[in-house]
Amino acid sequence: MTTRLRRQIEHAYTHSPATKVRFDAVGVNSADIQTVADLQKLPVLPKDDVIRMQQADPPFGGLLAVSPDEIRHIFFSPGPLYEPETEHDSGSLDTIVQVLRQCGFEANDIVLNTLSYHLVPAGLTLDAALTQLGCTVVPGGVGNSDLQLMMMHTLGVTGYVGTPSFLQQLIEKAEASGELFKPAYKVSKALFTAEPLAASWRQRLVEQYGIAVGNGYATAELGFLALNTDGGMAMHLLPEPVIEIVDSDTGQCVGPGEVGEVVVTNFSRAYPLIRLGTGDMAVNVDPNPGTSRQEERALMLVGRKGEAVKVRGMFVHPNQLRFAAGQVVPFTAIQGVVTRPEARDEFVVRIVTMHRDKTEVLKATIAQACRVGVDAIAYVDEIEAGAPGMLDLRDWD
Fold it and tell me: Helix (H, G, I), strand (E, B), or coil: what is residue 203?
């Protein structure tokens, strides 16, 4: 990866005007980036900044690093963001093919691809990877569940790619007619992405329907980044692109068990994105800090950047609170409250539960999940609907 990273940095610095401006602004040139660790010399590039760059200098914000006549596709992702692709960027398909193989897909599978083929890259990219693997693709796209269910049955579809909720909708529709999904339908493998996968639904797919499940973490701009094929929260990082989990304030990588923003450097020749901040927050899972390869590491997604609050130097996300508390007691609402009464962050967790005798266990479990000590558990009768999961009441004046 090191050699490839050097080539990518040199190409971006030489051919992408906005990238050169960004490097020069902090006194860094392409020769200063020799390893993945050297990327920390550069500040994180927030996705919102890319949006502003494109608006100021349409359509690509000065980030395009090839001649416009090399562009094969222009995608349009939420943001909005224009994303160019050339034939030279097709190497990323090899990574997606490996993802599909890990999920059990193989040549001669008939696969229903329900990801969108409209504007965003998801449908076309998975289509290309599936056909490269030797599968037959049914380009279902989004919606029209009755037709897709009919095709799934008539064509003997063996694999599914799309969101977990749409497959759930298809299965429930089939069974609403009085027909058992198995053995009437042949689907035996699925790759999910684009939305969270509930543990209960995954268990049902595996145990009741005999479907091997892969759960992929991907973004429209960067493609697949991590994959889980065995359940649980940890998603194993793919060998590429370059993935860091960093402190959003400093841009420095966080340690094992700490929460940071997922930051990615791609290998797109057409549209190099160097240290792009995804806005996704994740726990860094690293079994051998300092020596592990990227594919030996994992992450656990906890939510979006704007929802996290830093407490005593550690980001705490509402989903961490929900996960930790759920291991101890049933509850209907939970909220972390941070104040600073005496030049020290005070962290109180408010929770709505009938079980009010688990204070010490709750404090210990939340502290373990968030790596921040809890000063108090406050049992309350109600937390207003829509209230933030982390409430920052600190006065810095």
Answer: helix
